[in-house]
TrEMBL record, chain A:
It comes from Solihabitans fulvus. This is Protein translocase subunit SecY. The chain crosses the membrane at residues 18-36, 71-95, 115-135, 155-175, 182-200, 212-231, 252-280, 314-334, 365-387, 399-417. The lineage of its organism: Bacteria, Bacillati, Actinomycetota, Actinomycetes, Pseudonocardiales. PROSITE patterns: SECY_1, SECY_2. GO terms for cellular component: plasma membrane.
TrEMBL record, chain B:
Residues 410-588 form the Helicase C-terminal domain. GO terms for molecular function: ATP binding; protein-exporting ATPase activity. Monomer and homodimer. Part of the essential Sec protein translocation apparatus which comprises SecA, SecYEG and auxiliary proteins SecDF. Other proteins may also be involved. This is Protein translocase subunit SecA. GO terms for biological process: intracellular protein transmembrane transport; protein import; protein targeting; protein transport by the Sec complex. Keywords: ATP-binding, Cell membrane, Cytoplasm, Membrane, Nucleotide-binding, Protein transport, Translocase, Translocation, Transport. It is a peripheral membrane protein. Part of the Sec protein translocase complex. Interacts with the SecYEG preprotein conducting channel. Has a central role in coupling the hydrolysis of ATP to the transfer of proteins into and across the cell membrane, serving as an ATP-driven molecular motor driving the stepwise translocation of polypeptide chains across the membrane. The lineage of its organism: Bacteria, Bacillati, Actinomycetota, Actinomycetes, Pseudonocardiales. Its main location: membrane. InterPro entries: Helicase_ATP-bd, Helicase_C-like, P-loop_NTPase, SecA, SecA_Actinobact-type, SecA_CS, SecA_DEAD, SecA_motor_DEAD. Residues 9-584 form the SecA family profile domain. Its EC number is 7.4.2.8. Residues 95-234 form the Helicase ATP-binding domain.
Length: 434, 780
């Protein structure tokens, strides 16, 4: 793989693309650390150190690469854009006009992209207003007394909202030009950057526990990443033949025509679902009553469910992930539909009749392969909870060697490398031709 | 000043809408200068004109015109055209010529003299020492344009040739040797394909590609670019075919096999599979090794159930001939791919004509990609400007019409049913005809044209029909289509490239009479799958500032709507008037939507074909380069000598070295061609299943590349291994090598054809269907 990178850098066209992407990433990071106007950098720093991150901001902060809690000009990160794309995607099912556009190919798609951009800006205005409101009331850092925005005049606040909204617009543009002129999917690369940017901070955090622990953690981390890479690439390849063409004398089949089923067919979604769901009781208990005289169930929730080091929490998390993995695979992969489609287009699995037998076979294989897949997801997700003594309470999402962070990072990394590889293969041909 | 402002405004327009084509403003200055030189060029004798043009040829090999030379060229070209044809090119025409000499594609409205512009541009390139292929739409136009423009070329000292389907190899070689060659895309493609089978340098026909000027560029580069040109070779007959045909013929619909809703796919039921297995002697159809039998059964089933005689094809002179649905012509050059043609022939109990395998194939797109410079012109290219930029790196410039177009384009008239639509069309024709206006009716297919002609006859409206059955009279019919009171019912044949003059052959005085009635009235009986075809049809009226009008009659039962926007027909609130016409705006927008979906689907198919073909084309180029080297050098014999020196020495004792060189070359070429054929088959197979990779969140295209590249890497080494084996064992005598004796048979016959639309349903179809079904599922 390193060889691939070396030859990628040796190909001028590809090198330009990679350097361009890196340049954009640098710009993005710069913006993520640049404080927005009117924000007291010193106070934010003090407060951020004191904060005990919990709950809802955790995921947002993860996606924005920590920019949210720095109140930087890129505080909102890529989140509004992601949300907007998801909303527009969903709307194509609901609104006939959107559905029409989606079907109209490139032209319609361009219009939908334009709508996504508008919606992103709208969401950004909403979110930045929310964040600024929270910050002025001191709710962004509940345990911190220093005002993060010393001058709270209307004009100042408007400037702050406008800056953050504009920042989101810039991020959106950065993401799009990466996709267009750089390498990989811009949105994914920016998320990747946000997560990876936390590694040094986490590293120094761990360093304070002593060099021995640090070395051990690093080794464990590497082992985890390696195993995630390994499992993510794991596939069950079901051979498929399409008997609709009369091809030459040689019969092919076996190696190249197959239906791949991933070990981790569900990706990172079950983990996100599970952690959101697990957060719900905590939210309900906080909203339900005063914290001074907690009732019985509130106390249970607080000691067992909210506490990330508690065994109840860990077991519930694990069980939920397994459940959601099956649930999600069940939704996204429909063996009946697959078998039906194969039958219609002349495909079959050698030795198995098309139609029902094929569908049952697929169900069987899928059920088998989802079990290790879900256990793997569960283990990776709860791993950070084992290291809470070292990383500190509430940090499980941020721990770079497990959980959502590592799944996303490895996923994006693998995709990007594959894309570089594919382009490289083509470029080499062109080089050969010259 | 005004020009500068224009340019500024156009520039601003392009900033707002990047896909809008640029204007010809940059070329105005040079043409204006050429205008000043006109008096002096007029004084030249014909000989002086020719020698002046020849003087411009005196240049280094790859040096293009300087600014002065371009001006000079314009002046000479104008004078030559004026003298040879009696037509003095307008300024916009010369501007278009200059744009094309700069490698742009030019949009020119109908009747603006595209043919002359193409000829002057071609002659311009030729004068710069380039070799030009003028790619025309069909053989008829290639011949016509070459003859028509011949005098202009002669005056400019440029030699010209043309090629048709029936040209002999010698005629072809001669035509290609000329400075400018008029040839259809199919013919040049077939020539390129045939060339790659020759084993002697002297047999090659097509010279190295240089400049291509493409007429009707959107049609060639967009609409037909994805159609593969195929070179096939015969293989031995297989007698199981008869058995399978008999077995499939005995199956019962519903019980043994089912077809899907759209009638595009057919598949065996369990009972059907049992029956076939029993009839074929208890084999297991779905075992890994019987894929070939199953494929034959599937193809035969397809031929029996989905293709209908006299609808999809006709049987004539003991041959199956396809009917091209979109043009209504008999497509003599087209075949169904992948054994389907043979299956249909077996079904009709005819001699199997094309049992063969694909030796090589290339798309028109790849063919055009070979040329170093590509330019072109068309009336409707602006709509695909973005696409030409994306796929071919071409920029489009729009020429303003010489005289502004005053044609009236009425909004669509939408009816609820086809029946009401037809009635309304007849009524409208009767009304318009009463005033003496010539009418051109564009129908979507052959059957419709005849149906409408019958209705018109009933209504006692005399009409002329132009369709595939009357193609011999095409020119005569078109010539009279603009005459006073003429009614012409046509298929798409009259849509593109035909020039309908008001007054017909009667000429000038009748022209004014017709113009007074309102000029040519164009009626479309339905929207086409792309708005460009609609515009082409409209463009028949209003040439060179003539009066004219166009209107489309559509219905909610039109194929376009039923195929691409069926869900809309149900929801549209129909509020028809008594005559069935729907006047609310919704149905019209539904039609627009259906057309955009159709365009989107076509574009997706095109983009997909392009993406998947790019790599194959690169591999082809590598292979052909290697083949060319084997063909022209001693690579084969030196390679074999290095691998098996003993055998080489032993042979050298018996035969002359030249014979050995030739034998070695034949061996290597044979294995090279064989491997490439296998490779293509492998890729076709791979392509069929590659979409499954999306299930593992992999990118199908990336995976396709991965597999294709891995396979190709072994191709050349394997060729050499196989060649060594043959070299060691084959009988080589003074008379050369006995390839057949070694079991290596070159195809006894080869033929070329175009592949008809993929009858098995494309990937885009599948995707579209998936979206539609997902949507319906949610609604239900």
């Amino acid at each position: 793989m390193l060889g691939a990178f070396r030859s990628a850098l040796a190909t001028p066209d590809l090198r330009r693309k990679i350097l361009f992407t890196l340049g954009i990433v640098v710009v993005y990071r710069l913006g993520a650390t640049l404080p927005a106007p009117g924000v007291s950098f010193a106070n934010v720093k003090k407060c951020a150190a004191a904060v005990d991150q919990q709950g809802i901001y955790q995921l947002i902060n993860l996606f924005s690469g920590g920019a949210l809690l720095q109140l930087s000009i890129f505080a909102l990160g890529i989140m509004p854009y992601i949300t907007a794309s998801i909303i527009i995607q969903l709307l194509t099912v609901v609104i006939p006009r959107f559905e029409q556009l989606k079907k109209e190919g490139q032209g319609g798609q361009n219009k939908l992209t334009q709508y996504t951009r508008y919606l992103t800006i709208a969401l950004a205005i909403l979110q930045s207003t929310g964040v600024v409101a929270l910050a002025t009331r001191g709710q962004l850092f509940p345990n911190c007394q220093d005002p993060v925005i010393p001058e709270q005049g209307t004009f100042n606040l408007i400037v702050l909202v406008v800056t953050m909204t504009a920042g989101t617009g810039v991020i959106m543009w950065l993401g799009e030009i990466i996709t267009e002129k750089g390498i990989g999917n811009g949105m994914s690369i920016l998320i990747f950057t946000g997560i990876a940017a936390r590694i040094p901070a986490e590293g120094s955090n761990i360093w304070t526990k002593g060099p021995l622990t640090f070395t051990a953690i690093c080794l464990v981390g590497l082992a985890i990443i390696a195993s995630v890479v390994f499992v993510e690439q794991g596939q069950r390849r079901i051979p498929v033949q399409y008997a609709k063409r009369m091809i030459g004398r040689r019969m092919y089949g076996g190696t190249s025509t197959y239906l791949p089923l991933k070990v981790n067919q569900a990706g990172v979604i079950p983990v996100i679902f599970a952690s959101s769901l697990l957060y719900l009781p905590d939210l309900v208990s906080r909203l339900a009553g005063s914290s001074t005289t907690p009732s019985g169930w509130q106390r249970f929730v607080q000691t067992y469910l909210s506490q990330q080091s508690s065994w109840v929490h860990i077991l519930a998390y694990f069980a939920l992930i397994i459940f959601f993995t099956y649930f999600y695979v069940g939704i996204t992969f429909n063996p009946d539909e697959r078998a039906d489609e194969m039958k219609k287009f002349g495909g079959f699995i050698p030795g198995i009749r098309p139609g029902r037998p094929t569908s049952e076979y697929l169900k069987f294989v899928l059920g088998r392969i989802t079990l290790p897949g879900s256990i793997y997801l569960g283990i990776i997700a709860i791993l950070p909870n084992m290291f809470l003594d070292i990383t500190g309470q509430g940090q499980n999402q941020n721990f770079p060697f497990g959980g959502t962070a590592v799944l996303i990072m490895v996923g994006v990394g693998l995709d990007t490398v594959k894309q570089i590889e594919s382009q490289l293969m083509q470029r080499n041909y062109e080089g050969f031709l010259r | 000043m005004g020009a500068r402002l224009d340019r500024l405004l156009a520039g601003l327009g392009r900033v707002v809408d990047a896909t809008r084509p640029g204007t010809l403003a940059p070329f105005r200055g040079q043409v204006a200068q050429a205008g000043k030189a006109e008096p002096t060029t007029q004084e030249l004798t014909d000989e002086e004109l020719t020698s002046a043009a020849l003087a411009l040829r005196d240049r280094a090999a790859d040096e293009s015109f300087t600014e002065q030379e371009r001006v000079r060229w314009c002046a000479l070209g104008r004078e030559a055209a004026h003298r040879a044809l009696g037509e003095r090119p307008f300024d916009v025409q010369l501007q278009s010529v200059l744009a094309m000499l700069s490698g742009h594609v030019v949009q020119m409205a109908t009747g603006e003299g595209k043919t002359l512009v193409g000829a002057l541009a071609a002659a311009g390139y030729a004068t710069q020492g380039r070799q030009v292929h003028l790619i025309s739409v069909n053989d008829y136009l290639a011949g016509r344009d070459a003859e028509w423009m011949g005098p202009v070329y002669r005056l400019l000292g440029v030699s010209v040739g043309w090629i048709g389907q029936h040209s002999t190899p010698e005629q072809r070689r001669e035509a290609y040797a000329a400075d400018v060659t008029y040839v259809s895309a199919n013919e040049v493609g077939f020539d390129v394909l045939r060339d790659r089978l020759h084993t002697r340098v002297a047999d090659l026909i097509v010279p190295a590609p240089d400049v291509a000027i493409v007429d009707e560029v959107d049609s060639v580069l967009v609409d037909e670019a994805k159609v593969p040109l195929v070179l096939a070779g015969s293989v031995a007959e297989d007698d199981t075919d008869q058995v399978i045909t008999a077995v499939v013929g005995s199956l019962v619909a519903g019980e043994h096999y089912e077809t899907d809703d759209e009638g595009r796919n057919v598949y065996l039921t369990d009972a059907g599979a049992d029956a076939v297995e029993l009839a074929l002697g208890g084999i297991d159809l779905y075992a890994a090794e019987s894929g070939g039998v199953l494929a034959q059964v599937n193809i035969s089933l397809h031929a029996h159930t989905l293709l209908h005689r006299d609808v999809d094809y006709i049987v004539r002179d003991g041959k199956v001939q396809l009917i091209n649905a979109s043009r209504g012509r008999i497509a003599t050059l087209q075949r169904w791919p992948d054994g389907l043609q043979a299956a249909v022939e077996l079904k009709e109990a005819l001699a199997v004509s094309t049992r063969g395998e694909v030796l090589d194939s290339m798309t028109v797109q790849a063919l055009i990609g070979r040329y170093t410079t590509v330019s072109g012109m068309s009336g409707t290219v602006a709509a695909v400007a973005e696409l030409l930029q994306e796929f071919y790196g071409l920029t489009v410039k729009a020429a303003e019409p010489n005289i502004p177009c005053v044609r009236v384009d009425e909004p669509d008239r939408v009816y609820t049913t086809v029946e009401q639509k037809d009635a309304a069309i007849v009524e409208y024709i009767a009304e318009t005809h009463a005033a003496g206006r010539p009418i051109l009716i564009g129908t979507l297919d052959l059957a419709e044209s005849e149906r409408l002609a019958a209705r018109l006859a009933e209504a006692e409206l005399p009409c002329v029909v132009l369709n595939a059955r009357h193609d011999a009279r095409e020119a005569a019919i078109v010539a009279e289509a603009g005459a006073y009171g003429a009614i012409t019912v046509s298929t798409q044949m009259a849509g593109r490239g035909t020039d309908i003059r008001l007054g017909g052959t009667e000429g000038a005085q009748d022209r004014d009479r017709v113009a007074e009635t309102g000029g040519l009235c164009v009626i479309g009986t339905g929207r086409h799958t792309t708005s460009r075809l609609d515009d082409q049809l409209r463009g028949r009226a209003g040439r060179q500032g003539d009066p004219g009008s166009s209107v489309f009659f559509t219905s909610l039962e039109d194929d376009l709507v039923l195929r691409y926007a069926p869900e809309l027909v149900a929801v549209v609130d129909r509020d028809p008037d008594e005559d069935g016409r729907v006047r609310s705006r919704k149905p019209a927008s539904a039609l627009g939507h259906a057309q955009r979906v159709a365009e989107g689907v076509n574009l997706d198919i095109h983009r997909n074909t392009w993406r998947y073909n790019q790599l194959v084309e690169q591999q082809r180029t590598i292979l052909l380069r290697h083949r060319d080297e084997v063909l022209r050098t001693d690579l084969a014999v030196t390679g074999l000598r290095d691998r098996c020196p003993e055998r080489y020495e032993a042979l050298l004792a018996d035969v002359e070295p030249e014979v050995l060189v030739e034998a070695a070359r034949l061996i290597v070429l044979h294995h090279l061609d064989r491997r490439w054929t296998d490779h293509l088959a492998y890729l076709a197979d791979l392509r069929e299943s590659i979409h499954l990779h999306a299930l593992a969140r992999e990118h199908p295209l990336t995976e396709f590349h991965r597999a294709a590249i891995a396979e190709f890497k072994d191709l050349l080494p394997e060729t050499m291994d196989a060649s060594v084996e043959t070299f060691e064992t084959a009988r080589i005598t003074e008379d050369g090598i006995d390839l057949a004796g070694s079991g290596l048979r070159r195809p006894t016959a080869t033929w070329t054809y175009l592949v008809n639309d993929n009858p098995f349903g494309s990937e885009a179809d599948r995707t579209l269907k998936r979206i539609v079904s997902a949507f319906r599922g949610k609604r239900a």
